[in-house]
Amino acid sequence: MSSNPFETAVILDGIRRWVEIESPTERPDQVNKLADLVASGYRDLSATVERVAGRDGRGDHLVTRSSWGQGVPGILVLSHLDTVHPMGFIERLPFKVEGNRAFGPGIYDMKGGAYLAYHAFRQACADDVRPPLGITQLYVSDEETGSPTSRPLIEAEGRKAKYVLVTEPARDGGKIVTGRKGVARFDVFVKGTPAHAGARPEDGCSAIRELGNVIQTLEAMNDLKRRVTVNVGVVRGGTKPNVVAEDAYAEVDMRVPTMADADELVPKILGITSRTKGVSVKVAGELNRPPYEKSNAGAALYEHAKGLAAELGFKLLDVFSGGGSDGNFTAPHTATLDGLGVDGKGAHTHYEQLYISSIEPRARLLYRLYQTLQ
């Protein structure tokens, strides 16, 4: 029997068990089935498990707390149990191993990383000496849809913590994430006047034509130098080709690197008005994930992790990501380090995979963070 508590084959087998329980966000029964398995893993550990009942069609959240260090600010580990893949996707992408790659739905984003954090905690519980700080692990059920039901819980736990570690996957060959764009979503509703497009076009006011004006206004807000992106991703409108469109609709995604950008651009988008008489434009939406900016505390946490990685024999680089995570909710007020999960590629795709060689060093890094943060 191996004396290595971070043996890759053992950890990979644990990841496989989590992956083989499909857990699409919109299937709370499946997410809860995975939550049952995760919770069972803490029964013999020095920890308590609190289950927060799901709502609004989402699954339960799990809050696990170490039996030590809970009276003062400690370490919060953020993970999510839900995936974007629909039920049955595992038939298309079954768990399998090919050389250095292991495949499966959600294996990279982020069941692999979530399991590493659990395994590292398990080892911390087995040690004779407890880590200096208490450890709280939060597993949420709705991150892939913006964390609408878990956000209050994430923010509350984040404000109580001294450090936040996020097990989202590593980037670009193992880089850690120290900054993310904030995310805003908007719905655009345009109301015009219908008319016969051939016989009486002058009686109508086209909602689709006005939506075209709105789209031009939104597209003009893109500024790649500032890393600001505005994308009109969904468009609908009209009823028939021979009818001047009465209604049109669009869904918009905006990403901003700083709160200053958000403060400038969110009101601009909400304030868009019609250029055409007889047509109304209404925009609804908000910033649903604040920007994760690299604070001094976050930078110090990264430098600490970088030093630990060097001791473990690998180089840890950091990167800024355009995608959002639950770390966006904690970074404004608590030192946060993201991208601590497995290395791999293909998140949300039919070839999603982790690199098996990343399992042991990334698990050891989480374990060393638990041991040394104080």
TrEMBL record:
Keyword list, A-Z: Hydrolase, Metal-binding, Zinc
Q: Which InterPro entries match?
A: ArgE/DapE_CS, Bact_exopeptidase_dim_dom, Pept_M20_glutamate_carboxypep, Peptidase_M20, Peptidase_M20_dimer, Peptidase_M20A
Indicate whether Zinc appears among the record's keywords.
Answer: yes
Q: Taking every annotated instance into account, which residue ranges of this chain make up the domain Peptidase M20 dimerisation?
A: 178-269
What are its cofactors?
Zn(2+)
Question: Which CDD domains did the record assign?
Answer: M20_CPDG2 (cd03885)
Protein name as it appears in the record: M20 family metallopeptidase
